[in-house]
Structure prediction request, 82 residues.
Amino acid sequence: MEAVAKLRERPGKDLVILGSGALIGSLVRHNLIDEFVLLIHPLVLGSGHRLFPDGVSLALRLTDSVTTTTGVVLATYQRWRG
Prediction:
């Protein structure tokens, strides 16, 4: 986690995580994620993995959303630090 914290302090481009729930859970616990971009597909399967591990509670603020022609919603959330 220390290496990620140091990378965040450096100027430059954003750090991006694609498809690693375990890593996201660890980074959330250490307050190292500022923004989430979620792709929400219009398909309900009835079961699946939780985005955040048990015991993690986040206040998020929707900052942008776009719906694609196939109905997928791209929702951007930022940590609410109000």
